Each structure stands twice: as structure tokens, then as C-alpha cells.
Amino acid sequence: LSNPTPDTASVLCVDDNKDVAEAVRKILTKTRGFAWLGTLPDATKLVEFVAGHSVSLVLLDIDMPGRNSFEVLSDLRAFPESRVVMFSGHASRDLIDRALDYGAWGYAVKSDGNEALIECLRKVHRGEIALTPGAERLQES
Amino acid sequence: MPDKPLSTILVVDDHEPARYVRSRILRQHGYKVIEAGTGAEALSLVIAAMPDLVILDVHLPDINGLEICQRIKVDPILKVIPVLHMSATNISAPEQVRGLEGGADGYLVEPVPPEVLVATVGALLRMHRAEKETREARRAMDVLIGNLPGAAYRCARPGGPLTFVSVRVRELTGYTAEELMAAPAGWWDLIPREDRAALEAAMKSNQPGEHSEFTYRIITKDGAERWVWDRATAVRFGPEGLELWEGFATDITERRQAQELIAREKHRLAELVSEKTAELERSYEQLRVSERLASLGTLSAGLGHDLGNLLLPLRVRLDNLKAMELGYTAQRELEGISEACEYLRRLSSGLRLLASDSSDGTNVHATEVHDWWQDAGSLYRSTLPSQISLVSTLPERECWVAVSKTALTQAIFNLVQNAGYAMREAAAGRVTVRVERASSNTWRLTIEDDGPGMSPEVLARCLEPFYTTKPRGLSTGLGLALVYGLVKDAGGTMQVRSSVGEGAAFEITLGEAKPPLLTDSAQKRRVLGVRVRDGQLQAIIAREAAQMHCEVKSLGLPDAADAPRVVDRLEDVGPAPRRVLYLGDDVAATQGVICIGARPRIHDLRIGLRQLLSQDDGHPQGAPP
Predict the structure, then answer these.
(1) Which end of chain B, N or C, is less packed with Cβ atoms under 10 Å?
(2) Which pTM does this prediction carry?
(3) Is B424 left (phi over 0), alpha (psi -120 to 50) or beta?
(4) Tens-digit pLDDT profile for residues B547-558
């Protein structure tokens, strides 16, 4: 089932918080296996960007001005080779289920830390659904 | 007296001159006089003319005057006519007595001086008129009483026989007037025995001549209870003399029933109003409290979120700094900052735990206490005043308690916070959280402080909702009640020990829980074959299956002709049992095939998978042909 891709994952981060975006950039640029594509401050031009570039992973913040993230998520179904990981400061069982229903591959809680984020992105790139521990805890039942 | 109505007098005497003289005198005094010479004539004139007075000579040739008088007096109509005997021959006392006893109203012995005759006639006529008026009044009274809805009565004393009662008493009591008047205790027989003393006392206290009103029950002839309103007057003659009671009693049962109904309704209404008011006040209080709790929840959720957002860039920069070639001191400083960051991270997850709804049913009812303390401990530490230390004593080995992590966090948070508040003015203090075994299948969590303790009154009431010893603005009074509720919901118990000066200890006993993820190697491995085109959906199924300890095997991509063959294909996977969860709308559900839509929501997918995997392997259902 798993589809191991030894190749590098190209990552696009969509977050209005410049500090967060910058932090993600720093983590990913120094971690092997990831190629940094850049940051979008909101999701308005995301679909356009994904259509025009080769994007493996999209790290998509949930609370942003501009287009609703879930709406964009649903649009991105048209690009199955670009997998979306929702990226948020908070998590709830509802939010996670909704993200997965709309086609997200992962859910990363920002406060879970660098390692958790990297692990989550790697898993998704391997073809697994991945949640960081803060989100995983809510899924246990 | 020409304007006075003319009275007719019949003068009866066989002796004509005497009759003439008497008639003349009377005519002169304004009377109309008719005359008769014999008894027979007299009787027919009495009947025909109905005179106002008969002057009757005792000695008559045909019928004796005494007999004529008797005949008049026995006739029901004629008896009202006064009769005056006059005689010149029957003048002895016994004869006069006989005449008067025979019914005559007067007896004059001749010779009678004219003025005596006129005066006697005048007196008798006055008497006759008075009698007539009395009769008239009595008749009018009878009509009046007969029309009144009730009974007029008279008796010698309360509880004495009735000397009079009007006919309509029958409607009121069911007894006829005669029946009641024959009863020795009269009206009293109608009144229930237990009511009599009070009524008698009330009646005796009333002053002679004064009207009094009484309301009491009577029992009618057919056994029914009626309420009576009685207006009575006592007439007393002399200090010890005759007492006479006159009254009028009427039925007020319906009025009374209506009044009682109104009173009851009024009472009920008043109760309802006060009940609703109290309810309103309560719900207002609850609303205020829950609003405050909700805003506290929002605040801590927001705080947790923002903290998390800040921490990520902070940690990245720290990592970058650590990677640089820095001196020893700088590295140590960095480690300090990292520790503080880690503390903040735990605080942030603690805050999120505190803010989430512990009752939403999605939480796992098993919590490992060490894991819990990692997040919750730092949060608790931050709520205590700086001079109060927080100490934990946890079991050495893994320890699972049957309560959700959020509920446990919130419950203990309240207890720790209360302990901190109790010791806010102490120079130093300690809050201890201890987890130890209570029995083979329960754990005891003790939260103990060395603060001022509780008085017996406070101890007795401390678990009541809205009870608080803190100022209202600082406390909802819901804390301990909330803790108690959380513990009870988790199937646990809570006990409080405290006395003044001895601190307080809350002991929570919770059941032991099984770790939620069983990696039981003895469990039979199951294989789930997956044939789904959508990569993300396939990944989701793989993840859910893994959580249900199920091995996943890809069956390749589906094609259009798959639907009829879905069941057969499962033979590739392994031995029976074979069941199918079909993601599509074009196959009817048959035995062994569970159908959910083409693009199921994750929630429905989970239910479908659970259904698919939960069926007992030993009893395959609907094996394919």
C-alpha cells in the first residue's frame, strides 16, 4: 500500500503568521528530504500555484484571512499528487475529521514541535495519514 | 267619623224596641247597622254580609244566642267576627262565663248605658281590625318567607326544639317543617356532632338583640353535606329570663365551593409564581456562571493556542542558536531558555486540556497518570502562589485510571486551585498530589494541603453547587460540585477530610483502566483487502484498520466491472470469512456486504469498518457462493 518515494518532498507553506512561516522554513531547509518552495500569506492563489508547480506537500494553516481553508482543500482534490497537511494552533476531533473528509492527509498541531512536524510530513510523503501527537490524542477512541 | 271606613254591625234581638234603640245609637255613631229578629235570620245575615261585629241577644226564641256564637266561632271563615253578647235575663256570673267560654268576645248585662255600648263596640272593632292586620301581616310574611331560598326558624335556645320553621326548610334539609319541629333537638340534629360545641359557643357569645352571622355544615336527610349561612338574633327577656332565637338559614354550599376553588387557585397561582421566580433566579445564576465558565474556557483555549503559535518560532530559533559555535555560558543560558520553552509547551497543552469539554463523549476514559502529570503538573504549578510548593507522589510503574484526561485535569485543577486559595496568606505551604493503589482494581488520588482547613459547617456543605466561602466575584461556587460531578461521571467516589488547623484532603477513588491500545499478540490477525482508487481514502482506511489491529493488503486498483465481483475477489486475500465494505451506491446490500456511499465521510467509514471487523470470525455471515 505504502508508496515509498525516496525522492525529495517539495513543500509549500501557507500561513499568514510570518514568524511561523519563517520557523517552518528554517526547520525544513536544514532537514534532509525536503525542498523548500516558499510561503503564501493566504490561500487565494494556492490552487493556481499548485497547478503551475510540482508541489508534493502543502502545509495549510486553518485560520487565515482570504479563502476558507476547507474550501481550498476540497479544490486541491483535483491535484492528487499534491498532499495537504493542515497546520493549526489548535485541534479538535471535529476539525481533524473534517480535514480528512475534505481530503487532507495530515494534521499538524503547531505547538507539537519541530520533530513532530517533520515526522508528520515524512509519513504523508510516504503515503500515510499522519497526525502530530496533539491531534493523535484526540483521535484515540 | 265620616271618613273612616264604615263598619257593619249586626244587631240581633227578638225584642224590637230594644233592637231599635241599640241600632239608632250605633247609627248615630256612624256605623252601618243591619238587624235580625231571630237566630236563623242572624246566621244567614252573618254569612251573607260578613259584618264586622255581631251584637247578639242571648235569649232568642228559635236558636239560643250562645249556640249561634258557637257556630260562628267554629266556622273557619266566620270565626274572625267578634261577637258581643247582651242579656237582660242571663246575668249570673256562670252564665257570663259560659258565654265568653263559648267564644264570645264580650258580655254586657242590661241595662247598658249608651256610651258604654258605644265604647265596648269601639274596643271590639279595634281588636277586630288589629287581628285582621296581624292576619294580613302574617299572610304576607308567609308568602315572603315562602319565596326566600332558605328556612326561617325560631327556637327557645340553641339545641332546643323548634317552635317554628318555614316550609322551604325541606329544600334545604330534606326534612319537612313538621318533622323538624317534632325533633327534640330541632335544628341541632342537622349539625354534625363535632361542630356543635363551636357553634353553640359562637351563638352564646352574641348579645341580645344583636344580629349574628354563622356559617356551618348540616347533614341533610339523604346524608349529603351542605354549607349553611345563618343570620340569627337572640331575644332575651330579663337577666335570667326567657331566651328566644330567631334566624334565617340559607344554602351557600355552591358559593362556598366556588370560594374554596378560588382560594385554592389563588394559592396555587401564588405557589406557581414563587416557584417560577425561584427557577428564574436559579437559571439566571446558572446562566451567569456558565457564561463566566464559557468565557474562561475560551480564554484558556485562546491562550493555549497563542502560546503554541509563539513557541514554534521560538524553538526553531533556539535550535538554530544551539547549532552555532557558542561559548559554554551561552549554551547554558540557551538550555535554560529551552527548559522554559518546554514548560510553556506543557502549560499550553494543559490549558487546552482545561478548555475542552470533558463531557462531549469523544474522550477516552483511560488516562495514564504520568503522562497526564507531564502536562497538567506545570499548569497546576502556575496557578499556585509562589510560596506554595506542589509535590507529586506517583506510582513507579505505569498507572491507568478510568477517567478521561480532560476530566482528570479539570477536577484536580479545581482542587489544587482551592488549596492554593486557602493558603494564599500563609508564609509557606505545600500541596501534595499522591496516587496510590486503593484496592486490586482501584486507584486513590489524594490532593492534600497543609492550609487552615475547614470548619465542620463548611465541610458539610462544601460539595453543594453554588456554595462558596470566597467572595462572589472570585468564585462561582461551582468548583467542588464540578469536581464531584466529574468524579461521579467517571464512576469514582470522592471523600473530604478536614478540620480547622489540620489542612484538607480530598480523596478520589477511581477504577483501574486497561490501556486503550492493546497489542495483544494472541489476538488473531485479520486481513483487510483494499481496492480503492483514491490514495488519500486508501491511506485513511489503512490507518483506521491499523488502529483496529487489522492487516491491510492492497488488491490493486478497482475497475468499472468490479461491483458484481467484489465478493469473489476476496478469495485472493485469505481464507474465509470474507466480508465486503463496498464504497459505492450501485450494489445492493446483501448478506456479507456492507454498503456505504462512494465518498464516505470519515465518520461513516469508521462505523463501516468497525462493523466489518467486529463480526465474529467463528460465525461467518453470508459466505459468498
Answers:
(1) C
(2) 0.37
(3) alpha
(4) 777 777 777 777
Q: For residues B231 and A141, what is the distance between their CA atoms, to the nearest angstrom?
A: 83
* Minimal Cβ distance to B316: which of A26, A111, A128: A26
Bond before B111 cis per omega within 30 degrees: yes
Cβ–Cβ < 8 Å for B331, B322: yes
Residue of B298, B299, B307, B309 best to disrupt the A interface, most CBs of A under 10 A: B309
- Cell 497546520 belongs to residue: A87
* Torsions phi, psi for B317 (to 5 deg): -65, -35
Predicted confidence (pLDDT) at residue B617 exceeds the cutoff of 60: no
How many angstroms away from the CA of A76 is the closest CA of chain B? 12
Lowest mean pLDDT among B85-89, B398-402, B466-470: B466-470
Mean pLDDT check: name the lowest of A74-78, B119-123, B566-570. Answer: B566-570
User: For residue range B305-347, what is the model confidence (pLDDT) as tens digits?
Assistant: 777 777 777 877 787 787 777 788 888 888 888 888 877 877 7
Residues of B in contact with A100 (CB under 8 A): 536, 540, 602
Residue from the list B311, B530, B601 with its beta carbon closest to the beta carbon of A1: B530
CA quadruple B570, B575, B581, B585: dihedral positive or negative? positive
Instruction: Give residues 81 to 120 of A whose Cβ lies within 8 Å of B.
Output: 83, 89-90, 92-93, 97, 100-101, 103-105, 109-111, 113-114
Cβ of B602 within 8 Å of Cβ of A109? The answer is no
Closest chain A residue to the Cα of B367, Cα to Cα: A137
Q: Are B620 and B576 in contact (CB under 8 A)?
A: yes
Which stretches of A32-125 are assigned E, i.e. beta strand?
34-40, 57-61, 83-88, 106-109
A89 to chain B: which residues are within 8 Å by CB? 305-306, 308-309
Which of A27, A90, A128 has its CB closest to that of B352? A90
Determine the angle formed by the axes of helices B253-323 and B328-355, rounding to 10 degrees.
Answer: 160
Residue ranges of alpha helices (H) inside B324-404 are: 328-355, 369-383
Alpha carbon of A70: minimum distance to chain B alpha carbons (Å): 14
Please report the beta strands in B327-480, taking only residues with DSSP state E, as ranges in sequence order: 367-368, 388-393, 400-401, 429-439, 442-449
Count CA within 13 A, CB hemisphere, residue B390: 22
Q: How do residues A21-63 score in pLDDT, each as one tens digit?
A: 998 999 899 888 999 999 999 888 899 999 999 999 999 998 8
Backbone dihedral angles phi then psi of residue B581, each to the nearest 5 degrees: -105, 110
